[in-house]
Amino acid sequence: MDDSAGTFNVFADNVPILTQGTFGGDGSNSSFSLSTGTTTLNVASAEVYIRNYTTFSLTGDGVLDISNAANTGTLLILKTTGNATHTSSGSIDLATDGGIGGAGAASNGTGTAGSDSPLYFDSSSHFGSGGGPQPAGSGGAAGAAPDNTTLYTTSSDIL
Q: What's residue 45's pLDDT?
């Protein structure tokens, strides 16, 4: 990597092959501001869903949620080129957006475990549990959302 010009270009045979954008994204999704109610992002089964905002503000009792998570869960990445504000009363709700539950089992057996994803950076399992035995045979519960708080900001963090 050559950064002599401050461009952060990656070179192969002295030809730039990749130009990195700014750390905070490119602002292509405009700004995000929510202070009350719920905004739901349709992630369309993406395993990784990235939003690039110019500014981000989640305050009051506002809730940011996603729908249509991938079977293995969806990793939500929020970037901003400008200021980011998140107060303790605003929330990002990914509680049911881990991997899907497993299939039910036949004749009092244990069902299969659900799907997991290698994309999470914490030590928890995010796959759904195994389904219950037949005849109840219901599918397992959905997996847990990531919970490594060292990777996420709080209202006291300075970005």
A: 93
